[in-house]
Amino acid sequence: MNTSTIDRDIFGSVRMGYAVIESNKLKDWKTFLQQGLGLHFNADEKSINEISFRMDKHSKRLIIQKGSAEDFVALGWQVEDQETLNIILKRLTEREITVEKSSLAEAEQRGVKEFWRILGPKKQNIELYVEAKLTDEPLNMLTSSFVTDKAGMGHVAITSRKPLKMQRFWQEIFNARISDYIEQVISGVTLDITFLRLNERHHSVAIATTREIPLDPIRTKVQHMNLQGASLDDLSSAFQRCKQLGYEMAHEIGQHPNDKELSFYVISPSGFEIELGWAPLVVNETTWKPTTYFAISSWGHKPENPTKLYMFSTNLSNFKQGISTAIHPEYSPI
Ligand SMILES: [Fe+2]
Fold first, then answer.
1. Which residue segments constitute the domains of the chain, with CATH numbers given?
2. Cα of 106 to ligand 1 centre, how many Å?
3. If you measure from the C-alpha of residue 47 to the centroid of ligand 1, how many angstroms do you get, rounded to a whole number?
4. Measured between alpha carbons, how far is residue 142 from residues 5, 147, 238, 271 in Å?
């Protein structure tokens, strides 16, 4: 591979493909995702140690495996073709980032042909694959459909004490572009969020950091994961179902000023938040200019339980965790 190929701009060729979550609450996760958010449950799977869900033709999008982490243990990113994947792998090895190929069993568990794993920023398992296993089996969902396709299955927001390093990782390896920034002062602390896009989706990764003191009070590797429903009715129905099932809203329905997405944030059985959204704008690359906004929400997104300290997140009040991060450095591969 020559240098010009390695330098090729691969923007638009990578999208979020699946997530593996580890939890001891499989039954609750099944209720939450199937009856609450309205995903398709893969009922034919026989394992007692994992459950999986579809939202489109991909045989698996969310996989919940039994274990005590109550956290994301892997994020899968789908790459357009083998040539692009080779460019990414070359960039990783050039930076001496170890790349490990999946076993057959691991690939099977994720519903992909094979994948390559690296330890990303904040020790996040990043898994890269080209080919997902698809199925024509009809979907049995309470949501009309989810928006995936070229934009991928949504986005993740990650808290970091090394936001510029994390940003550089996504820019150097995946040619991520900056969509915009939000800064908001909450209880005297400035929260800075940078929104990165890998494709037409306004952001696939949002990186949040506290400006004055570099603390990371979020226990989990991902602060929230966003999924995109296809209609306003999908959003409002899922909101009502989740409430009826007793799941607490970290933030009720509201709208973000930057991507204009309408969404709510519900607390998952593992304690982190899942955002279900509708109608985020699609970036026009020829006219887009990064902007800074000064509020996370233009309206709504009120906490259901205002007596709890909800700021950017339910977990942001976890100061014990925040203080422990001050003495443990955050891992960064570059
Ligand atoms: Fe979000």
1. 3-129 (3.10.180.10), 149-327 (3.10.180.10)
2. 28
3. 32
4. 44, 14, 8, 23
